[in-house]
Amino acid sequence: MSLLYLIIGLSATGLFILIKSLKSTLRFLKTTALILFIIIVALSGFILNIPQNEHVARAVSSFKDWVQSPIEKSNIIGHHYTEMPVIEIQEKVLLDVPLVLQLPELPRGCEVTSLTMLLNYANINVDKMTLAEQVKKDSTPYRTENGQIHFGNPHVGFVGDMYTKDKPGLGVYHEPISQLAEDYLPGKIKDLTGSEFQDLKIHLSDQRPVWVIINTKYEKLTEDQFQTWITPTGKVKITFREHSVVMTGYDQQFVYFNDPLSGEKNKKAPIKDFEESWVQMGRQAITYLPH
Questions:
Q1: Cβ atoms of residues 136 and 179 within 8 Å
Q2: What CATH code is assigned to 93-288?
Q3: 171: CB partners within 8 A, 6+ apart
Q4: Other CB atoms closer than 10 Å to residue 211's CB: what's the count?
Q5: Would you say 247 and 239 are in contact if contact means Cβ atoms under 8 Å apart?
């Protein structure tokens, strides 16, 4: 009887792992649940002397089909969602994303301008000046004390003046941009920050551009190009070369992107350099889910 309780416990664990995996597009989570289930079935057959007949085989096959197929389920806390189907990464992609320039109105507005391009491609009629006004701001004033800069945190809101470089300023990171994008595509924004670079290709392969934070050189920067600020929410490491573009494609050698600063559509950079730049800036990326 204790063995039976053990089997029941393992089954519950496998089911819990499976339910948790339904939130993710990572197939290894579902595969883990599948393998655990098969082991439990085999173990049950051995311990309880149940023959591995066609009924057991059919049950395993049905479970495998259920795990590997796109599914619509309710999770254990009652939220309803539809899991995205698995997208095959293409060898090369190039999207026709409308180009929007940040200049002359927004000398520091690369982030909201790149978001404008992303939303316009998703058939959202909005302009850069509207987004510049709406994006969350960090109003912390600029000052220096004992040689240390005290200023805002781009993770909290746009830091400084977006409209002129005659006043102190920097930019904004993914959190406020994601919040703003959510206002225009409620429930459809996917913050990919922290992902692997390969994950960005999945969304591009599904015909959706990706907003990213990189730098103006499109390659890894040396440490002397960074500095640390003191902000009300803690220290933050920044570079004045911080930049935002919208990725439009890739091939074996290059990444393609619309650059709001240079005004180039489908500009290209070596894929290795671009990736290193993106990783150095915190792997910040945003896209939207299919309609």
A1: yes
A2: 3.90.70.10
A3: 108, 110, 111, 154, 158, 159, 242, 244
A4: 28
A5: no
Q: In which residue are the tokens 């082991």 written?
A: 39
pTM summary value: 0.72
Question: To which H or E segment does residue 230 belong?
Answer: strand 227-231
Strand order in the sheet with 234-238: 143-145, 148-150, 227-231, 234-238
Q: Which of 52, 32, 53, 39 is nearest to 7 (CA)?
A: 39
Using CA atoms, how far apart are residues 216 and 240, in angstroms rounded to an integer?
Answer: 9
> Which percentage of the chain shows pLDDT scores above 90?
70
**154 preceded by a cis bond (ω within 30 of 0):** no
> By CB neighbour count within 10 A (0-12 exposed, 13-18 middle, 19+ buried), where does 248 fall?
buried
pLDDT, greater one: 188 or 52: 188
DSSP for 257-285, written as a single string: EEETTTTEEEEEEEHHHHHHHHHHTT--E
pLDDT band at residue 16, thresholds of 50, 70 and 90?
low
- Residue 206 identity (one-letter amino acid): D
CB 229 within 8 A of CB 236: yes
Read off the pLDDT of residues 100-133 as tens digits, 9 standing for 90 and up. Answer: 999 999 999 999 999 999 999 999 999 999 999 9
Of 218, 285, 220, the closest CA to residue 255 belongs to: 218
Q: Model confidence at 9, in pLDDT bands (50, 70, 90)?
A: low
Could you report how far apart the first and last alpha carbons of the chain are, in Å?
A: 51
At 244, the amino acid letter reads: S
pLDDT of residue 148: 97
